[in-house]
Amino acid sequence: MPIAALAALLALPAQAIELHFCWQGAAGYSMTGTMRFPDALRDAPRIDEGDVTGFEITGWHEGARLGSWSLAALTPQTSWMLDFDPGEMRFVMPGIGVFQAWNADGQVSDCGTPGFGFNAGNGGQDICVDGRFVNESTIHWSTPLRATPEPVNPGCRQNILLSDRAR
């Protein structure tokens, strides 16, 4: 391969996988999100926060937007822990300690003001809004949280493309 062709190939952006997810908590709370990671990790046994190249979450209560957080807001003080199984397309919920901390630590109260965060640990899965633990959002820690290539909406339904609707 000529050097110019190799240089052009190396200059192309790496392919990334983009996945969407929706968490449905208690009392009308939900969260939508998008995650990106390098295509080369598609068959990895696990992906953690260091592998993720893009991540955004938005919180909802009965369809009204509560707030959002993304990697663009990550600081050294931000609670940021992620464990994802790409083979099963699910966030891992092992049951001991804190296993998902997306701008919310084990106390679910460090998401900032204004702010939004999500936490999953042995105490449950729940959200933080404006620096406050939203206790009424809590669901059982082992509730599956899966990802999909298709966009989702705050009601945790996949969006239906007009061309896919029955005529």
What does this structure look like?
The protein has one helix at 3-11, and strands at 16-24, 29-38, 47-48, 54-61, 64-70, 80-81, 83-85, 90-91, 98-102, 116-121, 124-129, 132-139, 147-148. It is 5% helix and 42% strand. Strand 11 (124-129) and strand 12 (132-139) form a beta hairpin. Strands 5-4-2-1-13 form a five-stranded antiparallel sheet, with no helix packed on it. The chain contains one helix and 13 strands, in the order H-E-E-E-E-E-E-E-E-E-E-E-E-E. Mean pLDDT is 89; it is low at 4-12 and 160-167. It is mostly beta strands and 167 residues long.
Brief characterization of the structure:
The chain has 167 residues and is mainly beta.
Structural category is mainly beta
Gap between N and C termini, in Å? 51 Å
| Strand fraction | 35-45%
Principal-axes geometry comes out as globular
Proportion of helical residues: under 10%
Order of helix and strand elements from N to C terminus: HEEEEEEEEEEEEE
**Which stretches are low in confidence, meaning pLDDT under 50 for 5 or more residues running?**
4-12, 160-167
Radius of gyration, Cα only, in angstroms? 18 Å
Give the integer mean of the pLDDT values: 89
Number of strands: 13
Main β-sheet, in a few words? Answer: 5 strands, antiparallel
What is the count of DSSP helices, taking H or I runs of 4+ residues? 1
| Strand order in space, largest sheet | 5-4-2-1-13
How would the blueprint of this fold be written?
Layout: H1 3-11, E1 16-24, E2 29-38, E3 47-48, E4 54-61, E5 64-70, E6 80-81, E7 83-85, E8 90-91, E9 98-102, E10 116-121, E11 124-129, E12 132-139, E13 147-148
Antiparallel strand pairs: 1-2, 1-13, 2-4, 3-7, 4-5, 6-9, 7-8, 9-10, 10-11, 11-12
